[in-house]
Amino acid sequence: MHRIVKPKNKRSKRFLDAKESQIIENTKTAMFIRGSQTSDVVNNALKEIYIMKKPNAVMFTKKNNIRPFEDFTSLEFFSNKNDTSLFVFGSHNKKRPHNIVMGHLYDYHLLDMFELGIESFQSMNSFKNTKLTVGSKPCLVFAGELFNSDHSYKRLKYFLINFFRGPMVQNVRLAGLEHVLSFTAVDGKVVLKSYKTLLKKSGTKTPRVELEEIGPSMDLVMRRTHLATTDLYKRSLKVPKTAKPKKRKNISIDAFKTTHGRVHMEKQDLGNLQTRKMKALKRVREEKKQKEAAAKKQRTAAANV
Q1: Is 0.85 surpassed by the pTM of this model?
Q2: DSSP labels for 95-164?
Q3: What is the C-alpha to C-alpha distance for residues 225 and 233, in angstroms, rounded to an integer?
Q4: CA-based torsion, 4, 2, 74, 239: positive or negative
Q5: Which CATH class is domain 27-239?
Q6: What are the percentages of helix, strand and coil residues in the chain, rounded to 5?
Q7: Alpha-carbon span 273 to 281, nearest angstrom
Q8: Alpha-carbon dihedral 166, 169, 173, 174, rounded to 10 degrees
């Protein structure tokens, strides 16, 4: 249970209101923490993931003696203090060399956590080309059957989307799509590669797209996982009613994004509908004679009565 803090002035009230649950979520912030022992590979990996996550990131300068899988209360405390819902923790020891732990929290409580080992690492400096601008929204590409078949990899895929997706936007112009992050699950590894899109002339209005690797590049091996319970996971995905779009009556959209509308009208009496007078629609004389004779018989029978 968290301690209930009452605001003393308007400034503290605005700060506490910003930390509460929002109907429309803001861009999630990540905190980067170093353990008591780290390696150069882990330090460089934390720095470069931090660069890709900026400006929605907080880097801790001091080392912290934390063991996330044994006691994660420190992570929840740092999350509440810094108002962050994502974290990356780096450590290094003989049993688990070049180790990073990534996870996310819901309502300042741990949700999912993944321990990944760095088998190979190439920094951005090893690729001699232009780098990306800070805060660019990446295009995420996932390849590999494990992301669809294995439960742990499914949750890892959701976490990576949650971590790297950036701010929510309505439209993206073609020239603004300049960063591609590729995640490939193969042979029990997750290969992370970062590319920059190059728009080349193609002779038509649509340019030819090429990918240029800019780093970082990592081969990650999943070592341990801590997954939330089904109830907690479903609660974290629940969308409030006020955030759901209101359904408009009698309007539907098909698979081709075409809008269809239904108009309700009163029932029409088609018996009195005036049609065009044509010979084909005129009654035959014999039919007229038969109807006139039947009407004459009815009148005679009524007169006799």
Answers
A1: no
A2: SS-SEEEEEEEETTEEEEEEEEEEEEEE-GGGS-SPPPPTTPPPEEEEESTHHHH-HHHHHHHHHHHHHH
A3: 15
A4: negative
A5: alpha beta
A6: 30, 30, 40
A7: 14
A8: 40
Give me 111's structure tokens: 């949700």
- Per-residue model confidence as pLDDT tens for the chain (305 residues): 455 667 788 887 887 777 676 666 778 899 999 999 999 999 999 999 999 998 899 999 899 999 999 999 999 999 988 889 999 999 999 999 999 999 999 888 899 999 999 999 999 988 888 777 777 888 999 999 999 999 999 999 999 999 998 877 777 777 778 889 999 998 889 999 999 988 888 888 888 888 999 989 999 999 999 999 888 888 888 877 776 777 778 888 888 878 888 887 777 777 777 666 666 656 566 677 788 888 888 888 877 76
CA angle, residues 90, 43, 140, in degrees to nearest 5: 75
Domain boundaries, the chain: 27-239
**3-class state of residue 67 by DSSP:** coil
Kindly give the pairing relationship between strand 30-34 and strand 86-91: parallel
